[in-house]
Amino acid sequence: MINLDAIQKSSRSQSENMVLQSVDSLQRQLKQSFNEAKNLNFPSSYKRVKNVIIGGLGGSRFPALIIKELFKQELKLPVIINDDYFLPSSFVNKENLVILSSYSGTTEEVIIMAKQALIKKAKITGITSGGEIADILRGKKFPVYIFNPIYNPSGQPRIGFGYAVGGLLGMLFKLGFLKIKEEDVAQAIERLKTLSSHYQITIKKEKNLAKQLAFNLYEKYPYFIVSEFLTGWGNAIANQINETAKNISGFRVIPELNHHLMEGLKHPQKIKEVLIFIFFFSKFYSESIQKRFIITKEVVEKNNILTLWIELKGKNKIEQVFEAMALGSYTSMYLSFLYKENPAAIPYVDYFKKRLKEI
Q1: Closest CA to 110 of 93, 124, 96
Q2: 124-148 residue pLDDT tens
Q3: How many angstroms separate the Cα of 44 from the Cα of each of 4, 143, 176?
Q4: How many CA atoms lie within 13 A of 263 on its CB side?
Q5: Which of 35, 113, 305, 327 is an S-S bond match for 55, by CB 3.0 to 4.6 Å?
Q6: Cβ contacts of residue 217 below 8 Å, gap of 6+?
Q7: How many Å apart are CA 154 and CA 103, to the nearest integer?
Q8: Is this structure's pTM higher than 0.85?
C-alpha cells in the first residue's frame, strides 16, 4: 500500500495536483461565495415567499442538504430539496422561490426544473458557474449568483462544493430566511483555516485524521453514521468517497437506523469481511442521540463488524459541519491515492451522460 506520508506534491500528476489545490482551498471557496452571494439584489417579493425549493443533483445537491440539516432550527420557512426531473407542480406557484443549483449550469434535470418553474410563474434564482442555467436566468433578468471558481482548479462540483454551500448561505441571509447572525458563519469560515490545516498532505499520518481514515477505509465498504445537524454532510462524504475514490460507500442516520438496520447486520456473513461503520459523534447532538450512538456502536460490534468512532473538534455546530466538509474531501482524495485512482476523473458518469444522449 502507498505510504501517504511519502507523497509529495511534485510527484503527483497534473490532475491530482489540481484536486489537491481544490481540497486545500475549501475555506477560500466558502469565503468567496458567501461574501459575494450575500451582496445579491433580490426583489422584495422574493422575501415574501411561503417556501423554498432547491433543485440540484450530486455535488450540487448535497450542499443544499448540508444547509437544510445544519440550520433546521434556524430556517424561517420550509426548504424542499428537489432531486429529479419534476418539481412538485401541485403547489408550485408565484408564492414559491425556486433556487436552481447546478455547478456547471448544464445539469439536464435542473434545466427541465427551470422550464417548469417558468411555466408555474414561481420566483426563480440560481447558483452556477455558467452554462444554460446562467443563460436562462440572465435572459429572464432573474437574480442569479454566477461564481468564478478560481479556487477549484479540479473543475469537479463535489470538490468545489464550498461554492454552493457558501453561495446558498449568502442567498438565504440576503433574503432574510435565517435566524442567526452573519458573523457566526463568517467566524466559522475563518476558523476552518485552522481546523482543516491538520488534514493537509504535509501532516504525517500519526497526526492526520484524514490519512488515518483513508487507511481504515481501504478495501472496505464504509457506512458513515451521522445525526441531526451532520445529516446533510453524511450524504456529502458518501458522494465523495464514491466519485473521488471510486469506492462504494453509504451513510445512515440515527435514530432512523435504530428502527430497522440493526436487524439487518446478521446476513450475509461474507459482507462482514469488508463492512465498517464510522460513527461521527458530536457533543452538540441532543442527549437522546448521544445515548443512541453509544448503544448502536455496541450492537454493530456484537455483530462482529468493525467500527470507528470520530469526534469533531469545532466549537459549535457550524464549525463542526465545515470541519467535517474538509475531512471528507481530504479523506476521499487520500483514498484515491491509495487505490492509484485519478480523483478528478469520473469515467462512468461521463459514459452514462454520453449514452443518455445517444438513446
Answers
A1: 124
A2: 999 999 999 999 999 999 999 999 9
A3: 52, 12, 11
A4: 4
A5: 113
A6: 241, 245, 247, 249, 276, 278, 331, 335
A7: 13
A8: yes
